[in-house]
UniProtKB/TrEMBL annotation:
Pfam families: 2-Hacid_dh, 2-Hacid_dh_C. The keyword Transmembrane does not apply. Residues 112-299 form the D-isomer specific 2-hydroxyacid dehydrogenase NAD-binding domain. This is D-lactate dehydrogenase. PROSITE patterns: D_2_HYDROXYACID_DH_1, D_2_HYDROXYACID_DH_2, D_2_HYDROXYACID_DH_3. Belongs to the D-isomer specific 2-hydroxyacid dehydrogenase family. One of its GO terms (molecular function) is NAD binding. The keyword NAD applies. The lineage of its organism: Bacteria, Bacillati, Bacillota, Bacilli, Lactobacillales.
Amino acid sequence: MKIIAYGIRDDEKPYLDKWSEENPDVEVASTGELLDESTVDQAKGADGVVTYQQKPYTAAVLDKLGSFGIKFLSLRNVGVDNIDVDAAKRNGIQVTNVPAYSPEAIAEFTVTQLMRLLRRTNTFDRKQANGDLRWAPDIADELNQMTVGVFATGRIGRAAMRIYKGFGAKVIAYDIYHNPELEKEGVYVDTPEELYAQSDVISLHAPATKENEHMINDKTIAQMKDGVFLLNPARGALVDTDALIRGLDSGKIGGAAIDTYEDEVGIFNTDFGSFDKIPDERLKGLMKRENVLVSPHIAFYTKRAVRNMVYFAMDANKSLIKTGKSDKLVKL
Ligand code: COI
């Protein structure tokens, strides 16, 4: 049995090598290159493919895998929004993801960024760098006095809720699907509008779908409280960036932490050598604002998460090849 793993980074390699040692019945090939039309031929002869990338898995790539008789594609991440679903189905390709490599990693980072916004650490860091050690006017808000609205109560949303509650915040939530435990606690509001109207902080934890693209837009921002804090560690596509900028300009949005950005592919996780060379003026404009924290999709990036992404994806791929089954199968 042979599995080829694409896009293997230096930080993933030791985990892949260890998995390989522990699974001597599997021949493991790996490459640092991403899976696209120029690299797909490397998969010829493999029984399964393991990947992680944010760039699209195109119809051409999936057709090629199909023509090699490869039916199993295991992603090392949660999001499956970059797969051409029709092409995967047409080729009978089964896809697994890693739904829970560490929901806590993302939740902890999200709350960290919120605390930085509330305590104005960006502003104090910049002031201190200029020798200004005064307090005023950068007085903070306290999370324990606030209502946090969690949009989507999957594993990550629920992990974030536990932390917000630990800080003493009032936590409410919106989701089409109600988690039975949370339902008992009565945290759910019935509509996104209610969530927006009641929350001092909006914490987004929804996957990207066709339906929720730009769900945060001029109209929904207008429904939010004045001075709302917006957190998006989920997917860039959820937020209309131009509307976010207008909201920040008007003061309607008091601060934002974006770990995801709608045009991040090819930009995040790249070294451009200097700030000026980052090829996205809109993003740079956001990065320059003191009440905006931009981070390059790093909420997930912990040792535990990376280890689990490699192990769970390799396990799932092996299981599909061996048995045709996996508990991580994605319903396409
Ligand atoms: C995902 O797992 O879908 C993420 O968003 C994290 C990714 C950048 C590895």
